[in-house]
Specification:
Layout: H1 7-12, H2 16-22, E1 43-45, H3 72-75, H4 81-97, E2 102-104, H5 127-143, E3 147-153, E4 166-168, H6 171-178, H7 180-189, E5 193-196, E6 200-201, E7 204-205, H8 210-220, E8 226-229, H9 237-243, H10 255-265, H11 271-288, H12 298-312, E9 314-318, E10 328-332, H13 357-363, E11 367-371, H14 385-405, E12 409-414, H15 433-442, E13 449-454, E14 467-474, H16 480-488, E15 502-503, E16 521-523, H17 532-537, E17 542-544, E18 555-562, E19 566-568, H18 572-576, E20 595-603, E21 609-618, E22 629-639, E23 644-651, E24 658-660, E25 665-667, E26 671-678, E27 684-693, H19 701-704, H20 719-726, H21 747-751, H22 755-774, H23 782-793, H24 796-802, H25 809-819, H26 823-832
Parallel strand pairs: 1-2, 2-3, 3-5, 4-6, 4-16, 5-8, 10-11, 10-12, 12-13, 13-14, 19-27
Antiparallel strand pairs: 6-7, 9-14, 15-17, 18-20, 20-23, 21-22, 21-26, 24-25, 26-27
Helix pairs in contact: 2-11, 4-5, 4-12, 5-7, 12-16, 13-16, 14-15, 22-23, 25-26
């Protein structure tokens, strides 16, 4: 079919039944062909690689081989938009080879807590950085005519009860923090699709949330693409279509089309509304169907993955121990042998594993003695105490030898697939217990240790003072071993900087009071004070600052110039919508008024290297809620040893703005602001104050919200004050009781009030566990955890959708009746239901 075929013409040629069928996927990954009247397109998972599953591949870890690039949490540490573009382009090429029309990525939710199990799929705690990286990803992939699906829209910030929890967020936090990165990507790159998340936002499931979908995403931001559901998220399908959803995934086995047909017959939805939803589906099908198949260059992609890993690693500490020259070294830690390169779950790539760091260092001339020290992650439970003791004793003996003979020791450690992954959260920041026990023993005999760390999220480092250096690899993809060896040996100079803060402990996290709870209502009480906005404003010490990272060289900042000492920011709301060649707050292409900031940057060391330059705007002191300072622009500069460059950054009115709830607009409060050029949040190199003319903004939150300025009776961000900040009545998310239970509640909720439901849930969960045991997996495997959480925490209707009606609708309705103690109704449903 010609891609220029008129959408209206195609739509007019479809029957009502074909239109309705078009709004639900076919199988796990395809769109409907409308009885041969349309081509179909395939979509696959793929934030950091292509996870395409072919016929017969149903296991989440079973997919075609493809390049595993560093995860979002890793590549974000590069702060490099060009590298993101290279990665997205390479994934697009592999998608074209495999005839995939849409890659489901990138993940870009804000990191509300460092303990979210899926944080490895997301970029940052900061909306500018997350939105800018996402824009680069979308732009590069769509230039190759492969579709994207930025996700998970929106406020999907925990894995605990992710399918049914209610993210209760005040308007300012919603706009400035959680929606802002999506807004940046939409306004600057127009992603072809957006994936709507499972959770509720302020009382309504996202797929049914007209305010989020239509009023903000489409009418305000001008989103032109298709909105698709996360898999099984479109419960009450007619309500979703009315709210603005376009495509429900996956194939529901006829359940959702049947719902829509009945709603149409009852007059609850019009053909015009169905047509509106179909138009966007037809548009994306015509755009991405019948792409020319190409041959992807996997060797080049592997080298690209290596370059990204090298540029994303962060040197967190160095007392002169790194880089290492080829010599005799000791390596301790099983993660050196079996390097963790990615996270577990739906983004798991069937990668061609590159050589590990031990092999790579040997190839560079290093003489290595190695002990695993602790059991492999998948062998922890099957390793006896005696075997663990033997592993530890050998590692300690080798560490002692290193101390006596002055041999450098490299300790490899970090988070594992058992401790973080899709479908579950962490509840502390500790490293795995089997690692900590032996690490503590090692430090009793040797305190000159270089740590190489892995993980998709921050973790506690109680032994920080005993380390001479820390190289953080994060989750660096299939080229991890090669990149790690190049960095340790000084062949490559580390240039990554943290895209999120590393707090000392889970007790320091601003969302600690409400995050990750086993309850429906999740109040985002910390409001705009996420990540560094909290730590900096409330002077809470952290292990490592946002934006922090060391280098083997040094940089000198000088000669700051700001183009004006007075700046007119009266067009702040208009500036928010600027679209141009670049992205994020730094995009000033259409700004009426620009502020140019220039300075000199010189490499004063002996190594060539890169520096991530960060521009923060320090806000005026005020009586309303506002962070002390915020990231407003950034760039990455590469300099040879001794080289000096002039760096220029531009700001416009949005750099001084906040969202005003009363006027529903972004405004810039008048006052004296400070432009700060920094190497990290707290490492300010240059600064200059300017006077901003904007809005005379007066709001006395100090009296109305006292715990948002200082702890009240030892408590910060009190529920009482949050209710006042929220302004509207808080959504009623009380737990169901007999008589109120519905198909939109979960089996887990039903199990708390009904023995029948508990029995059914136990049967399902035990079946999942037993089936996976036959495949050699235990309960801690991420794939098992995802399946268990999906069946227990999803709304019951979502289970019908995900199983394509194998979980029979009549059985689901009968179960609801049983929980509500309507036993006769349950019997009638089982006998006469369909």
């Amino acid at each position: 079919m010609d891609k220029n075929t008129n959408v209206k013409e195609i739509l007019n040629g479809l029957t009502l039944k074909e239109k309705i069928r078009l709004l639900n996927g076919v199988g796990g990954w395809y769109t409907s062909d409308a009885n041969g009247k349309l081509p179909k397109i395939m979509m696959t998972d793929g934030p950091h690689g292509l996870r395409k599953q072919g016929a017969g591949q149903v296991d989440i870890n079973d997919s075609i081989p493809s390049t595993c690039f560093p995860t979002a949490s890793c590549v974000a540490n590069s702060w490099d938009l060009n590298l993101i573009k290279e990665m997205a382009g390479a994934i697009a090429d592999q998608a074209l080879q495999e005839e995939v029309g849409i890659v489901l990525g990138c993940g870009m939710n804000i990191k509300r807590s460092p303990m979210c199990g899926r944080n490895f799929e997301y970029f940052s705690e900061d909306p500018l950085l997350a939105g800018s990286l996402a824009t680069a990803y979308v732009d590069a992939m769509q230039k190759r005519n492969v579709g994207t699906s930025i996700k998970h829209f929106a406020c999907n910030n925990q894995e605990t009860r992710r399918q049914s929890s209610d993210s209760i967020v005040d308007e300012r936090a919603l706009r400035e923090i959680y929606l802002r990165p999506f807004e940046i990507a939409v306004r600057n790159a127009q992603p072809s699709t957006i994936m709507a998340s499972y959770n509720k936002i302020n009382g309504k499931y996202t797929c049914q949330n007209k305010k989020i979908i239509k009023d903000i995403l489409r009418d305000e931001w001008g989103f032109k693409g298709a909105l698709i559901s996360d898999w099984g998220a479109a419960v009450d399908f007619p309500a979703c279509i009315k709210a603005g959803l376009n495509l429900a995934m996956p194939d529901s086995g006829g359940y959702q089309p049947g719902q829509l047909e009945k709603a149409f017959k009852r007059g609850e939805i019009t053909e015009e509304e169905i047509d509106r939803a179909c138009e966007k589906v037809i548009e994306i099908v015509l755009r991405f169907a019948n792409n020319q198949k190409i041959k992807a260059d996997y060797k080049k992609a592997h080298l690209t993955a290596k370059k990204i890993a090298e540029n994303s690693a962060v040197l967190l500490k160095n007392d002169g121990a790194l880089p290492l020259k080829p010599q005799k070294i000791i390596i301790l830690g099983q993660m050196a042998e079996d390097m963790r390169i990615q996270g577990g779950g739906s983004s798991h790539i069937n990668a061609t594993q590159g050589p590990n760091v031990i092999e790579c260092l040997k190839n560079k001339g290093f003489e290595i003695e190695y002990e695993p020290a602790y059991p492999a992650d998948d062998k922890v439970e099957s390793t006896s105490d005696q075997e663990r003791k033997a592993l530890a004793e050998k590692a300690v003996a080798l560490a002692k030898k290193g101390a006596e003979e002055n041999i450098p020791i490299l300790l490899f450690c970090g988070l594992t697939n058992r401790t973080e992954g899709e479908g579950f959260d962490r509840h502390d920041m500790a490293l795995p217990d089997e690692q900590l026990k032996v690490i503590n023993k090692i430090f009793t005999v040797n305190t000159k240790v270089i740590a190489v760390t892995f993980g998709g999220s921050p973790f506690a480092l109680p032994f920080y003072d005993d380390l001479s250096a820390i190289l953080h690899m994060a989750l660096a993809g299939e080229s991890c071993g090669e990149a790690c060896a190049a960095l340790l040996s000084g062949e490559v100079n580390p240039g990554g900087k943290l895209s999120e803060s590393f707090p000392y402990s889970e007790r320091d996290v601003p969302s600690r009071a409400t995050w990750g709870k086993e309850e429906s209502a999740i109040e985002y009480r910390e409001s705009i004070f996420t990540g560094y906005r909290y730590y900096d404003t409330f002077k809470v010490p952290v292990r490592f600052d946002f934006g922090f990272g060391l280098s083997y060289t040094s940089f000198e900042y000088s000669n700051l110039k700001v183009s004006a000492s007075d700046f007119d920011a009266s067009d702040a709301n208009e500036a928010i919508g600027n679209v141009g060649a670049s992205c994020g707050y730094g995009d000033t292409a259409n700004a009426k008024n620009k502020l140019t900031v220039t300075f000199s940057l010189k490499n004063t060391g002996k190594f060539a290297g890169s520096e991530v330059v960060q521009l923060y705007v320090k806000n005026p002191e005020c009586d309303y809620l506002r962070a002390n300072k915020e990231l407003r622009a950034f760039t990455k500069v590469f300099l040879e040893a001794g080289e000096e460059k002039e760096v220029s950054l531009e700001l416009d009115a949005k750099a001084f703005s906040l969202f005003d709830v009363e006027s529903k607009k972004y405004i810039a409060p008048s006052g004296v602001y400070e432009i700060q050029i920094a190497a990290s949040l707290s490492d300010v190199k240059l600064s200059e104050k300017i006077t901003v003319k904007g809005i005379d903004y007066k709001a006395n939150d100090k009296e109305r919200l006292p715990s948002y300025f200082n702890a009240v009776d030892g408590e910060i961000f009190r529920h009482k004050d949050f209710a006042s900040l929220y302004k509207e009545p808080l959504p009623d998310d009380s737990a169901p009781v007999p008589g109120t239970f519905t198909i939109y509640n979960s089996l887990a909720e039903g199990a708390t009030i009904s023995k029948y439901c508990k029995k059914q849930l136990d049967k399902i969960v035990n079946g999942i566990i037993e089936d996976n045991k036959k495949m050699g997996r235990n309960e801690n495997d991420p794939a098992v955890k995802i399946a268990v959480c999906g069946m227990s925490e999803n709304p019951i209707e979502s289970i019908i959708l995900l199983t394509a009606c194998k979980f029979k609708p009549k059985f689901a309705r009968a179960l609801v009746h049983l929980v509500n103690r309507r036993f006769l109704a349950a019997c009638r449903e089982l006998i006469f239901g369909r």
